[in-house]
Amino acid sequence: SMQCFPGLVLALSSLLGALALLQLSLYLRVPSRYGKHEERLCRPRGRLPARCAWFLQELPSFLVPALLLALRSPPRLEPLGCRLLCCLFCWHYFYRTFIYPFFTRGRPFPLQLLFFGMLFCIYNGFLQGYYLIYCAEYPNDWCTDIRFTSGLLLFLLGMGINIHSDLLLRQLRKPGEVTYKIPQGGLFTYISGANYFGEIVEWFGFAIATWSLPAFAFAFFTLCCIGPRAYHHHRYYLKTFTDYPKSRKALIPFVF
């Protein structure tokens, strides 16, 4: 049976933080080349349909913690707070793996990005699952702690914003369409990256609720990874649509 090695948790969390800074340096000025930022003359080689790609990419983040839990004998998810935190992580990735891909209408996804996305999901799924299942220790009344309750509320708020924004984006396209249109409604009234904003809020909520280094490293990685993408989306919309609302910000309402 596995044991908790605090040094391993610290090393993996530190590496995740370093990867976050690397992502920021790579994509702050130049966007990752997929979706609306894909090179126009790029040949559609080495791609998978968006639905298949999203399913394969997100699946490890759900399966790896489930496998770690299955390997634990006896199951350790006590107290209740620890069980709930692990369920929050798996709940998000259950949605991203088994629900979101079957409704998305995105363009075919590059295999290279899919490969790195799967590697990250294996890595992060192991880190978060290993910490919560083998290392985390919470008092029996953690569910009433202000960190847990406020973090849980933020997580649910962020997830709600993320799912609602995805729905609004899907409604922009009819089946088979690949053209881009101006998002409307919800938080898109104020920011170009409403779906990204929701996911960032979600994972910072999770980090507060778990009050752990792995979760804060993941929240920081999320910010560094999709924050710049929201900024590049904003610039794309301003450049592409002459009637794009000038009052909208990129990621944070009324600020950025």
UniProtKB/TrEMBL annotation:
Residue ranges of every copy of the 3-oxo-5-alpha-steroid 4-dehydrogenase C-terminal domain listed in the record: 108-256
InterPro entries reported in the protein's UniProt record: 3-oxo-5-alpha-steroid_4-DH, 3-oxo-5_a-steroid_4-DH_C, SRD5A/TECR
GO molecular function, one term: 3-oxo-5-alpha-steroid 4-dehydrogenase (NADP+) activity
Reactions it catalyzes: 17beta-hydroxy-5alpha-androstan-3-one + NADP(+) = testosterone + NADPH + H(+); 5alpha-pregnane-3,20-dione + NADP(+) = progesterone + NADPH + H(+); a 3-oxo-5alpha-steroid + NADP(+) = a 3-oxo-Delta(4)-steroid + NADPH + H(+)
Compartment list: Endoplasmic reticulum membrane; Microsome membrane
Superkingdom per UniProt: Eukaryota
GO biological process terms, semicolon-separated: androgen biosynthetic process; cell differentiation; sex differentiation
Annotated GO CC locations: endoplasmic reticulum membrane
Main subcellular location of this protein, as a coarse class: endoplasmic reticulum
EC number(s) reported in the record: 1.3.1.22
Membrane-related topology note: Multi-pass membrane protein
UniProt keyword annotations, A-Z: Differentiation, Endoplasmic reticulum, Lipid metabolism, Membrane, Microsome, NADP, Oxidoreductase, Sexual differentiation, Transmembrane, Transmembrane helix
Pfam families hit by this protein: Steroid_dh
Transmembrane segments: 109-134, 146-165, 203-226
Family membership noted in the UniProt record: Belongs to the steroid 5-alpha reductase family.
PANTHER family: 3-OXO-5-ALPHA-STEROID 4-DEHYDROGENASE, 3-OXO-5-ALPHA-STEROID 4-DEHYDROGENASE 2
Function according to Swiss-Prot or TrEMBL: Converts testosterone (T) into 5-alpha-dihydrotestosterone (DHT) and progesterone or corticosterone into their corresponding 5-alpha-3-oxosteroids. It plays a central role in sexual differentiation and androgen physiology.
Name listed for the protein in its UniProt record: 3-oxo-5-alpha-steroid 4-dehydrogenase 2
